[in-house]
Write a structure and sequence with these properties.
The protein is mainly alpha-helical. The chain is built from five helices and no strands. The chain has one domain. This is Retrotransposon gag domain-containing protein.
Length: 117
Amino acid sequence: MKNYFRAKGIVDDAVKINTTSVFLINISLLWWRGRATDKRRCEIRTWQEFQCELKGQFYSHFVEKEARTKHEVEQRGVQKLSEAMTVAESMVKLGLRKDKLGSSKFEEMGVHKKNHN
């Protein structure tokens, strides 16, 4: 979120809080809807179970995604914020999941990393 706020020039704390809460609400609703319709999942019976599952679902995902995005931006040798935002948005849209052969979705789409040799 910090990068988004910086790119959009958002400095007001109230705007940051509102923006983040809307983002988290939408993401959480999608997770909950998917979880509620997945019959293979065990029922959550306590508040503690809910908290553990929610944290497990999102915390590690966002940390991993942020690290992957930073790594990809560094690998591409991005110097400008606008380029970094483009790379980050592409990663979000494509998911950047590795396939069986180890190529990324970027490579499948014909977008290759810069050669740093």
